[in-house]
Amino acid sequence: MDRREFIGGTAALAGSLAVAKPALAQSAELSFFYPVAVGGPITKLIDSYAAGFEKENPTIKVKPIYAGTYQETIVKALTAHKSGTPPVLSVLLSTDMFTLIDEEAIVSFDPFIKTEDDKKWLSSFFPGFMANSQTGGKTWGIPFQRSTVVLYWNKELFKEAGLDPEKPPTSWAQQLEFAQKLTKRDAAGNTSQWGIQIPSSGFPYWLFQGLTTQAGAILANPAGDKTDYANPGVVEALQYWVDLAQKHKVHPPGIVEWGTTPRDFFEKKVAMMWTTTGNLTNVRANAKFPFGVAVLPAGKKPGSPTGGGNFYLSKKASPAEQEAAFKFVRWITTPERAAQWSADTGYVAVTPAAYETEAMKKYVADFPQALVARDQLPTAVAELSTHENQRVTKALNDGLQAALTGTKQPAQAMTEAQAEAERILKSYR
Fold first, then answer.
1. Per-residue pLDDT tens digits for 343-377
2. Global pTM?
3. 3-class DSSP state for residue 364?
4. Which of 68, 54, 52 is nearest to 13 (CA)?
């Protein structure tokens, strides 16, 4: 989700290792595009990883470059690919997989899996994260900074409203009931505190996928060439979201900003929020009150989409450059480093083995909320990803925003979004 993961000055990680000069004999210099708009803790972490890898691999030079958002990075990576000087390795959204394959910009990781140890490593990732990393029997992406959507709640405000501060809502009905108790209005009817906030700017489809999964609907097929936006479950999910604001008035009306939602939570303008687990470290550092983290409340069933970024290997890189990049990917995804990255950022550690490390056990003993996203993985689904992904997703986002602002009814908005997606994807089948 980043675009999604680090808010308040730090966008989330996305990166690419671009070749600054041709690899020499046994040495290579790899520049690592890391899309974050400004400096901060995340850039320091990435710098330290680069230095650590270089120390162990003196013939490979890794040079991180901080360059904007995920969206900006995919554009830069594809532009560089077309001009003939692409990054060797990129961390881009897991949902960019089909686009990168269609552009012939990447190669699969399978040819680099040569030893039993390599095979063991490839099979070590959570299956929920591999759903957005593999297609057509090949592995195109390696999970790195991955997430799910989770519910955060303010325990003080729960107590004030007469709710048990240790018990979050577990169903759609309960979520609405709690939100009604948590919404505060003055005598003139002005709202000073909202019960719940689900952001709808930037990538509303991702938060919405939590609701559609809970309604029993899947937005796209695994082949990425067909969507199901007009499914009755999708319409039901959108109606529930719209009703929170327009009918029940427990959710801010119109478009809710992704970036300001955590701040609204810190300022007690909202009692419950849906956002990425990648915000966990941010919330822990800035919430001046006890807070809880829980799996999303269930509709017909529980569920959330996964999100975040994968490593991808450039097709135009030389074999030596690809081998060097593969070595870096193996190095940074070891259980110890995956555990440390998770503790430092709030992202989900990408392998079960990371949760067995001493460092992770110590971290979660002190901060059990960090286990919520991992525990949600068994009911998680792949983030919406198709061929022509940005256009197909935009069709859905436009429909969601039309319904949330009241310009279209949910059923009409989803029918029109499906027609547009069908028009775009037809030629891929």
1. 988 889 999 999 999 999 999 999 999 999 999 99
2. 0.88
3. helix
4. 68
